[in-house]
Every structure is written in structure tokens, then in C-alpha cells.
Amino acid sequence: AGWFRRLLHKPKPSSVESSLNSGCSASSSPSSSSAESSGSSPSTSLAGSVRLSPVLVSDISASGSARWTKSYDVCICHSEVDLKLVEELVSYLEGQPESFRCFLQLRDATPGSAVVTELCDAVQNSHCWVMLITPSFLQDPWCKYQMHQALAEAPMANGRTIPVVKDVDRKDYPRELRSLYYIYMTTKEKSFKQIRDTVVRYLQELCQSPTSGME
């Protein structure tokens, strides 16, 4: 009888704990699972999942920061068809307080250099790689080549490869990226901010890493 009374009076988990548990489970599913469980297009797996601790611009931009070990903060991989949207993204990132250094192929590639050389150099000399996955991206062999180069450069580096999905059905989403969280572009304002926050988080972790100078 004693154990039965204790069972009846066992306290229930607080609403705060319940909401935290549900929030964690909702934001921790990988892009592959989210894409398979959605309708005709991938869901916003990264939406609301970026949690940034306070960071000062000076922490990332300090002269001795590991940020300066590479020429660019972000390399944008995209189809020429999507150039206008990418130019808006680059303008947004470069206008942030962190003054992100972006590699935009048509603007920053060296005239006369081989395309393959420029693409490989851009990947190797950038901290993060934004992949704008659109129908045009999927049809562009150079986009796929650069995507594979980025994955080969740092296959296990969290936050370096940032897939951004726009107007792509889940059946067409690159299998190579299905183990990564992605951003599904709904509005430019929201998606651009998510990209910015992801890059900041990676640079923050890079600068705080005890082995950052060895990269």
C-alpha cells in the first residue's frame, strides 16, 4: 500500500522541462530525416536551431584571431542563374558589423586562371562554404564539383558547409548533403540572417579553439 500511495503522489515533470525536451527533439533531427518526412520540398531543419552565445565583433576580428588564417570567411557556391540572389546575400554579409570577406566567383576570380584552379583555391582559402541548392545548381557540373571539393576538404567540420535550399524537391536534394543541417529559404531576410548566424558561430568556435592556430 505504501508504494502505491507514493506512485500516486509522484510529482510530474515541470512544464519548463517538458518544453525544453520537446524543443530539443524538434531541432536535432538531421536534414535527411526532415527531408524524407516532409512533403514536396525539404523542411527548415536549421530554423531556430542556431543558438549563439554572446560574442563581440572584436573577438572574431582581433588581429591575432584564427579568422585571418584564411583569405575568405565565406565562399558562395551557386549557379550563374542565381547570381542576383547571391549578390544580395554577399552584400548583406559584407555589410554586417563583422565585415565578412566573401568569395564570389564572377567578381573575385583571377582573369586568365583555370576554372578548376580558382574553384579549388576558393574552397581551400575559405572558412565556410554556402551551397545555394536550386534547380539550376543541380544542373551545373561546376557547382557539383565545388560541392564535392568542399566536402572533401572538411568532411567532419561542423558548420563549414552550409546548404541553403530553394525551390528543390526532396527527391532531388543532393544525397551527399543529407547528413548536414540545411536552411530552407522562405524569405531572404530570415535566411540571410540564419546564414550570418551560422558563420558567426563557426568563427566564434574557431577563435576559441585551443588548436585554432594549427588550422
From TrEMBL:
<dbReference type="GO" id="GO:0035663">
    <property type="term" value="F:Toll-like receptor 2 binding"/>
</dbReference>
<dbReference type="GO" id="GO:2000343">
    <property type="term" value="P:positive regulation of chemokine (C-X-C motif) ligand 2 production"/>
</dbReference>
<dbReference type="GO" id="GO:0043123">
    <property type="term" value="P:positive regulation of canonical NF-kappaB signal transduction"/>
</dbReference>
<dbReference type="GO" id="GO:0035662">
    <property type="term" value="F:Toll-like receptor 4 binding"/>
</dbReference>
<dbReference type="GO" id="GO:0032760">
    <property type="term" value="P:positive regulation of tumor necrosis factor production"/>
</dbReference>
<protein>
    <submittedName>
        <fullName>TIRAP protein</fullName>
    </submittedName>
</protein>
<dbReference type="GO" id="GO:0005737">
    <property type="term" value="C:cytoplasm"/>
</dbReference>
<dbReference type="InterPro" id="IPR000157">
    <property type="entry name" value="TIR_dom"/>
</dbReference>
<dbReference type="GO" id="GO:0034142">
    <property type="term" value="P:toll-like receptor 4 signaling pathway"/>
</dbReference>
<dbReference type="InterPro" id="IPR035897">
    <property type="entry name" value="Toll_tir_struct_dom_sf"/>
</dbReference>
<dbReference type="Pfam" id="PF13676">
    <property type="entry name" value="TIR_2"/>
</dbReference>
<feature type="compositionally biased region" description="Low complexity">
    <location>
        <begin position="18"/>
        <end position="47"/>
    </location>
</feature>
<feature type="domain" description="TIR">
    <location>
        <begin position="70"/>
        <end position="199"/>
    </location>
</feature>
<dbReference type="InterPro" id="IPR017279">
    <property type="entry name" value="Tol-interleuk_rcpt_adapt_Tirap"/>
</dbReference>
<feature type="region of interest" description="Disordered">
    <location>
        <begin position="11"/>
        <end position="47"/>
    </location>
</feature>
<dbReference type="GO" id="GO:0005886">
    <property type="term" value="C:plasma membrane"/>
</dbReference>
